[in-house]
């Protein structure tokens, strides 16, 4: 089937590949771990994931590098975050070393579907999921669990590459509840944003940005990505610090790169919705888009334009270039960030 794939024309959508990884949990232990070929999930109608949303998931990528390798980006960090979500949702943890091994095995099994280096940022998307399954009609934690990973070749989240986007703040709804599950990758966190996302895209916006649910005065995050801004006078890289924001691996990486490779001051703190004038650049950051610069953010009747509606700001551009160069093997990576799928 790979001969039918045009690597340069891939969009961010699902392509079925031959193998996925699965492991099953019951009576206190994981069993039957390995590759499977059936894309249909073995889930019963009374499963807690279906009835009560007991599930967490992750999103990472595998990259075809400049020297012909296939690598994962910080897979241990994604495994640790999955387990933080598992603890919050009363689910069994997946040992991080097993999480990384499973990611490597499923990518290797579908190696022919990993986009080669040099095709408009195309990569292999990796979706691990931990789901409450089995027949369990009560509102309580499941007694059986499924850990599964599927993969798919994908292109960039937004066609056109690194270009500015127009965002809008939803001031009528919260993404998550204060003191809720916003800081884990729980399935229900994303379902609650779908209606707004559909509405704003029909109006020409690219994504929706949410305020903190406690005071509605500070920026929290986008429907599926973290927010960042660059101060005008200092070039300081600022991103919200909030218990309702998902601790993004991309954010963690960009904070380190901004400070250690670009020499910028960095800060996790409050970004007030009425103080956009302080910032020269802003945008979204996450695994899917890496960086999606903001041309504008609209809040109620006010549309604030950042660096440019047509050009990407210099700091956003430099950070995007540095991180993607690491992922595709063009520059040396910080220790532990890159894992070759063929190495033990």
UniProtKB/TrEMBL annotation:
Q: Which GO terms describe its molecular function?
A: L-isoleucine-2-oxoglutarate transaminase activity; L-leucine-2-oxoglutarate transaminase activity; L-valine-2-oxoglutarate transaminase activity
Q: Which reaction does it catalyse?
A: L-valine + 2-oxoglutarate = 3-methyl-2-oxobutanoate + L-glutamate; L-leucine + 2-oxoglutarate = 4-methyl-2-oxopentanoate + L-glutamate; L-isoleucine + 2-oxoglutarate = (S)-3-methyl-2-oxopentanoate + L-glutamate
Pfam families the record matches: Aminotran_4 (PF01063)
State the UniProt keywords alphabetically: Amino-acid biosynthesis, Aminotransferase, Branched-chain amino acid biosynthesis, Pyridoxal phosphate, Transferase
What cofactor does this one take? pyridoxal 5'-phosphate
Q: What InterPro entries does the annotation carry?
A: Aminotrans_IV (IPR001544), Aminotrans_IV_CS (IPR018300), Aminotransferase-like (IPR036038), B_amino_transII (IPR005786), BCAT-like_C (IPR043132), BCAT-like_N (IPR043131), BCAT_family (IPR033939)
Write down the superkingdom of origin.
Bacteria
Family annotation (SUPFAM superfamilies): D-aminoacid aminotransferase-like PLP-dependent enzymes
| Enzyme Commission (EC) number | 2.6.1.42
GO biological process terms on file:
isoleucine biosynthetic process; L-leucine biosynthetic process; L-valine biosynthetic process
Q: Establish whether keyword Ligase is in the entry.
A: no
Q: Which PROSITE patterns match?
A: AA_TRANSFER_CLASS_4
Known pathway: Amino-acid biosynthesis; L-isoleucine biosynthesis; L-isoleucine from 2-oxobutanoate: step 4/4; Amino-acid biosynthesis; L-leucine biosynthesis; L-leucine from 3-methyl-2-oxobutanoate: step 4/4; Amino-acid biosynthesis; L-valine biosynthesis; L-valine from pyruvate: step 4/4
Which N-terminal stretch is annotated as signal sequence?
none
Q: Which residues carry this modification: N6-(pyridoxal phosphate)lysine?
A: 185
Is the Transferase keyword given for this protein?
Answer: yes
Q: What class of enzyme is it?
A: transferase
Q: Which NCBIfam families match?
A: ilvE_II, PRK13357.1
Family affiliation: Belongs to the class-IV pyridoxal-phosphate-dependent aminotransferase family.
Question: What's the protein here called?
Answer: Branched-chain-amino-acid aminotransferase
The source organism is Aerococcus agrisoli
């Amino acid at each position: 089937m790979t001969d039918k794939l045009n690597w340069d024309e891939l969009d961010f959508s699902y392509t079925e590949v031959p193998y996925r990884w699965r492991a099953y949990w019951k009576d206190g232990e994981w069993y039957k771990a390995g590759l499977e070929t059936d894309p249909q999930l073995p889930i019963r109608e009374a499963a807690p994931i279906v009835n009560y949303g007991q599930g967490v998931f992750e999103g990472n990528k595998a990259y075809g590098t400049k020297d012909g390798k296939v690598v994962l980006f910080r897979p241990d960090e994604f495994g640790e975050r999955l387990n933080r979500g598992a603890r919050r949702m009363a689910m069994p943890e997946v040992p991080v070393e097993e999480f990384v091994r499973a990611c490597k095995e499923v990518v290797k099994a579908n190696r022919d579907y990993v986009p080669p280096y040099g095709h408009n940022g195309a990569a292999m998307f990796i979706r691990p999921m931990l789901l409450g399954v089995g027949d369990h009609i009560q509102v309580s934690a499941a007694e059986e669990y499924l850990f599964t990973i599927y993969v798919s070749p994908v292109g960039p989240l937004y066609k056109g590459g690194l270009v500015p986007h127009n965002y809008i703040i939803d001031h009528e709804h919260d993404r998550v509840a204060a003191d809720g599950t916003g800081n884990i990758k729980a399935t229900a966190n994303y379902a609650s944003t779908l209606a707004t996302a559909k509405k704003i895209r029909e109006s020409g916006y690219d994504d929706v940005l949410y305020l903190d649910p406690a005071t509605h005065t500070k920026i929290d995050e986008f429907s599926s990505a973290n927010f960042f801004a660059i101060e005008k006078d200092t070039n300081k890289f600022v991103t919200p610090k909030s218990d309702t924001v998902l601790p993004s691996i991309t954010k963690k990486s960009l904070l380190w790169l901004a400070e250690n490779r670009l020499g910028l001051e960095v800060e996790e703190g409050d970004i007030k919705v009425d103080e956009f004038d302080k910032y020269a650049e802003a945008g979204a950051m996450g695994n899917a888009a890496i960086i999606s610069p903001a041309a504008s953010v609209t809040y109620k009747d006010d549309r604030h334009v950042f660096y440019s509606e047509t050009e990407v700001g210099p700091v956003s551009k430099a950070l995007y270039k540095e991180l993607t160069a690491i992922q595709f093997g063009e520059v040396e990576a910080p220790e532990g960030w890159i894992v070759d799928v063929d190495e033990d």
